[in-house]
């Protein structure tokens, strides 16, 4: 961020002052009631909410806590409720909000640790439970000596869902997660489809046992808030509806999973290649 | 030590700056709850029959039939069942993966299934409006 210490020599032009109303609660003193503190922040064009928070931390109040890392929407650390909607603070420009007050609260549907820092354990634990990795029935992954054939169509079938950065904002937007804490939520369920739609995977039954419970996937009623909140275009609501359809079809028609992707061994002498693809450079390590 | 911060039941009703599907969810909850409340009252009123025909006549025929407040209540019930039914039909299809499109490469600005489903939602809205118009004509013809 530029020099925004109200210095006249500053290169950035301050457009206006905006009040940040920030949720403050210290986990070390749990008996204290949460309060909203107001900070005046000089805002320049293009300044993000995260930069506003960094300004407050530098110049106004060192005791404020928030989580952030990459500053460019990749790490998923700085998710918070900005004017009532879960957004990444690093991607949301302050002036684009078109309000004179920016209200920041910690992500809803997660316990608060301190100020704007949520505890994402709930999402991570469920995400682990749905086995977010390729499951092969016959050969353990470490013994697979080759590459799987997969067409472009097969790739597009799951590619969209594989960009999840685990920021947890979909869980925060979901009204069902809000009233039923046991519900798995959009992030783990969306990731379940990412692996089930992958032709290399054979773990549908394993994941079904986790998902198809009383508090599982069929509690979703397509509010669609998760897809709107997702900063990466994962579309978890879409993934969940596709998965529900798949579960019902496999249940009613006793449909078996399609053949999983064929293996192309690396040891093959002359593997088939398209002609317009250049050959790779020689190996540098053995 | 961490503090609980769930949206709770409040989260069902406050849809904030979300899109029409999120509001449809809220309306589905409200109409569903009102139909359940009606059902309880309905069972209670109809249950007066067990005290004999006299009680039934006094409670239902004299007390309820022709009561203008009840007539409006009946219309509200009709609206709740209509909205819940048509939107529920949409949800049944959508939740099986229909009318949502196919997975795509997510290139910014991202397109979601909500965009692809919006047309279907609006068609359901038109169907509700048309049937509601018929209902208004039928319920309030005495006015």
Protein architecture, described:
The complex is a heterodimer of chains A (286) and B (143). Chain A is an alpha+beta fold. Chain A folds into two domains: 14-118, Beta-grasp domain (Ubiquitin-like (UB roll), Roll); 121-260, Orthogonal Bundle (Fumarate Reductase Iron-sulfur Protein, Chain B, domain 2), CATH 1.10.1060.10. Chain A is 28% helix and 16% strand. Chain A has nine helices and nine strands. Chain A has helices at 49-60, 121-129, 152-159, 169-173, 175-179, 186-196, 204-211, 225-229, 236-252, and strands spanning 14-24, 35-44, 79-82, 85-88, 101-105, 112-114, 117-118, 146-148, 263-265. In chain A, helix 2 (121-129) runs parallel beside helix 6 (186-196) and helix 6 packs across helix 9. The model of chain A has no long low-confidence stretch (mean pLDDT 89). With 143 residues, chain B is an all-alpha fold. Chain B has one domain: 3 helical TM bundles of succinate and fumarate reductases (Up-down Bundle). Helices cover 66% and strands 0% of the residues of chain B. The radius of gyration of chain B is 21 Å and the shape is elongated. Chains A and B meet through helix 3, helix 5, helix 8 and helix 9 of A and helix 1, helix 2 and helix 5 of B.
Structural class from helices and strands of chain B? Answer: mainly alpha
What pattern of helices and strands is seen along the backbone of chain A?
A: EEHEEEEEHEHHHHHHHE
Number of helices of chain B: 5
The N- and C-terminal alpha carbons of chain A lie at a distance of 45 Å
Give the strand order, joined by hyphens, for the main sheet of chain A: 2-1-5-3-4
Helix content of chain B: 55-70%
The low-confidence parts of chain A are none
Shape of chain A: globular
Cα radius of gyration of chain B in angstroms: 21 Å
Summed over residues and divided by their number, the pLDDT of chain B gives a mean of 90
How big is the Rg of chain A? 23 Å
CATH class of the largest domain in chain A: Mainly Alpha
Largest sheet of chain A: 5 strands, mixed
Unreliable spans of chain B are none
Structural class of chain A: alpha+beta
